[in-house]
Structures are given as C-alpha cells and as structure tokens.
Amino acid sequence: MANDPTLRAAALDSKAWPFEEARKLLKRYPDGKPAGAVLFETGYGPSGLPHIGTFNEVLRTTMVRNAFAALSDTPTRLVAFSDDMDGLRKVPDNVPNQAMLTEHLGKPLTEVPDPFGCHASFADHNNALLRAFLDRFGFDYEFVSSTQQYRSGRFDDGLRGVLRNYDAIMGVMLPTLRAERAATYSPILPISPTSGIVLQVPVTVVDAEAGIVAFEDAGQRIERSVLSGQAKLQWKVDWAMRWVELGVDYEMSGKDLTDSVTQASKIARVLSARPPEGLTYEMFLDERGEKISKSKGNGLGLDEWLRYGPEESIAFYSYREPKKAKSLHLGLIPRAIDEYWQFRGNYHTQDLKQKLGNPVHHIHNGAVPTATLPVTFGLLLNLASLPGVGERETMWAFLHRYDPTLSAETHPELDRLIDYAIAYAAHFVAGTLNRRAPSEAEAVALRDLDALLAADEAGDADGDPAVRLQNHVYDVGKCHYGKEALRDWFKVLYETLLGAEQGPRMGSFFALYGVEPSRRLIAEALDRPFMSGSTEAA
Prior knowledge:
Number of helices: 24
Number of strands: 12
Number of domains: 3
Strand order of the largest sheet: 1-2-3
C-alpha cells in the first residue's frame, strides 16, 4: 500500500483517526526506524474471560498498523502480550469452581489450575480463548506470554535495569501512592519459594548486576535472585520495562489507565528509553452505563456477539469514535449490521478522500468487497420475527418471491445474515412483540391502505414494487395524518402490524413479505377489538 503515491498523499491528509495515529509514528521516525520493525503492542490480563473490549484493542491497533503501512515502507510487527505471570488477585464472578480458585489466590495465573478443566492453567485457558478469537478474525499478530519471557531470561536485562535504577523508580512511584501502600511498595514482586505466591513485600537490592534482592517471607529474611522467573515487576514498572525490552513503538490504552501511562512513561525514561506513541480511548459501558469488567462478567463474551452478528458488525462498531464512551450490548447488533452495509454500499462510488474516511476501508484494509445486500438486516429481522417465518427455507421462499435471482449460491453473505436474523429474532425479538389493536381512526387508515394494496395486487403495475408500495403508505399517511405527522402513521403500522415500536420502510417490508400476506396482517389487526387512547388520525 505504501508504494502507491496517490494513496500515500491522500492518507497524509486524511482526518480518519487511524491515519492521525499513524502520522505520530512518522514523526517518531522521520527517516524510518534505524533497525528492525516498528512494533505495535496490545496488552491483555488473563485474570478473567476475554470480552469484546479486549478484542477491540487488537482491532483498533491493527487499523493503525495498516494505516502506517500506507504511509511508510518500514516493516511492522504486532505483539499481543498476555500478563499471565500476574498473581490472581480475586476470583472472577463468572467462572466455575470458585472455591478451588480461592485456594490459589496470589499465585501467578499460569500456576492456577483451570477451573474449566480443559487447560494446564487458568491463564492458558483464557489465553487460548483470546488467540482463538483473534485467529478467527484473521489478525496478523505474535502472541507473547509474560511467564515465558520472564522464565526464559528474556527480561533479565530489564530486571537488572530496574534494580540499577531502583531509587529513581521509587521516586516516580511513591508520590502517587497512599501512605499505607507506600510503606510496603516495591517495584519488584518476588515469588515465594515456599507458597508460590507473588509477594507484595518491600525488598532491598543486594546486587543489581547479579539480580539479587533481600525480602522477608513467612517471617524469614531471604536473599534470592529475581532473574529467570523468580520474580516479576509491579505492573506499571512491568509495562515500562516491557516497552524498553521489546522495543514497543505504539500501544493504545483506555482512559482509565491515563495515570498509569503517565507513570510508566516516566519509568521508561528513567530506563533511558522513549515511551511509545498511543491513543487514549474511552471505555465501553454495559447496558446500565457501567464499565465493562472481566471479573464481573458484565461485558460481552467474545462469542456472544458473533452468535447474532457477523465479524464485520463488531469491527464497524469498534471503529466508530474511539474517544467517545459507548454502550456495548447485544441490542446494538441490528443497527451495526445495517450501518456497516450502508457504508460498504457507498464505498465504491466515493472519491479517494471519502474512501479513506469510510470505516469499511479500515475494516477491510482497503480491499472492500463489491457485493451489495439486496435487503437490509432490519427487514430480515422483521420477517424472521413474524409467526411461522423463522426458518431458513421459509425466509428464502419470501426472498425468492421478492427477487427470483436471489439464492444462497449467488448471495452467500445474505444467506449468512439469514441465520443471524433467525437467531436474533428467536432470542430477543419474538417474545417482546405485542401487536396491539388499532383505534377506530387508525382502522379507517388501515382499511384505505388495504384497498390500495388490493388494487396493486390485482393490477399489473410496473417499476420497483418496494417504491410503489411505499408510495401507497405515504399516500394514506398524508391523507389521514398530514405530512407533519407521518411519524405517527408509521408508528401505527409498526405497532399494529409488527408489534414493535420501530420498524423498517413498510414499502420494502410489504414487497419482501408479499402483498397478500401483508394484507392478512392488516386483516388480523382490524379483527382485534378497537382500543381507546391510541394515536388519533388527523
């Protein structure tokens, strides 16, 4: 991509946030990185089950990496780093065998048994879930385990550097701590040779070059090496050391880690290194507006969204406005799917500047598929929600009648969305629908609409049926409600025919569902006893 001068020139001027982030790296290395690849990192704490917020960080970092590749010929790497040597501080609420986990509190996560019983450790279980999801999405990344780095000696030079600069690092950290915490704080966390617990105790540096420290464990003073996995660092110090030892150039993080980034950056400078560039993004919130937490399990699991929507819908939602706090729950899926397809449908008619600002450009790294969607996901969902329709064969029968050229073979993405629509409708829509009775005034308008549909069904009209049927909807609405109150008319149709407060363009729905079945919906509504208190027609 970077060899395309036209693309590079447009990307240098693009206001899309991945390009804005990528330009930070151009300023960092105006003449290119002297040696090796520009390194992007994402961090993950495997103390709880992964959620979409975790995946989101890898996705967004990948988008910045791809944007940088459009601007520079410098090679890049992406490391997904798991802090799996961290001690288990508390038992997550959403895992089995909690009593067993309680017995292992304080031990490195790679030494805690897997409560699910399928991996060597709790960390291995959660790491496997993360990697499986990242692999499913096709990310190009290198998985790096903290435990492996420490135990292999890869971080030994970093540990020696921390010991050499122990006082300076304490000078960075102590002012940020409460007095009680400061009294026992140490950048080094030795692992107890007796209990295997990651100890939170003061240490004394005995020999920085040899990596020897002294600390108290179970009432005894111990002198022990911190090298080769016998200790780890407090996480802010660990973060800084990791940046230095791995040569990290870019890492984004959530707004809740703003102070941590500040401290880690200061420590990186103490270690004579430059902290990485990065984006501070806002947090995802659950339906109640609370921050998503792995331990609480109040966020989405990695597989939950994908049960009801394709990968592109997650990517689309994650791309939008990273500096704005957003809710993240299953109710967002239908809109995310339709908006993704709307932006994708516009992409190939846009100029280069518009394309670079289009979310789908970054979702597909410029290789945006050309196939379009003949009907919206919202329409599929409304269809699947109707009694007797929520099966693949029935859905395809309606679609084939709507357009005989449609088939699973010619439109595989539509075929895939049908499965999502059926699943979503069955679990989240069908039980909430309540097709109310119309008021007397609403019934008059429905009868007029039925008459127009009957005439349309009997005639041999030309043109797009969705447009023609939508015109019938507008004509009746303007007659009974006026142009200013058409929303009230649409709401009547949604509530009496579909049983929902919101819905699709009714002309498109009638065309897909068929005029005769649509008239049956009107007849069923008119058969219900009239109700009072409904929106009255003008």
